Amino acid sequence: MQNKTLVVEPHITIGFNSLNHIIYVDWTGDQTKESVQDGCEKMLDLLKQYHCTKVLNDNTNVTSIWLEAAWWVAVDWFPRMYEAGCRLFAWVESPHQLGKLSIEETLKFEITGVIALTFQNKQLAEEWLLKYDPEMK
Fold this sequence. Notes:
The protein is of the alpha/beta class. Helices cover 39% and strands 29% of the residues. The protein has one domain (3-131): Rossmann fold. The chain is globular.
């Protein structure tokens, strides 16, 4: 793989794989509404810059609940991700119950355009992204 690390901050690392054209996101530690919004905006900017349709969003290392950001992620951010070209969003769940709860709460809102699925591990998420062509009807 040809991975390039684009962002490294205490709460998030974002990379790009030029071979499979996927944005890889690794969230780390406790998340707040502010850290989620900051990371999501960075992800959106990079999706536009690299013209990607696929994101692997890994919450394996998230250790807290971030319910305060759930509505914003679903109603504000996901539509902008769709506008920017995102079609597939593989979301790896945190092993921590509070982290899972935040993802579940986000997905309760109607997300249109982007196919967002949850996975228990990164390998399954990546396999799905590599198999699925968002241009196929």
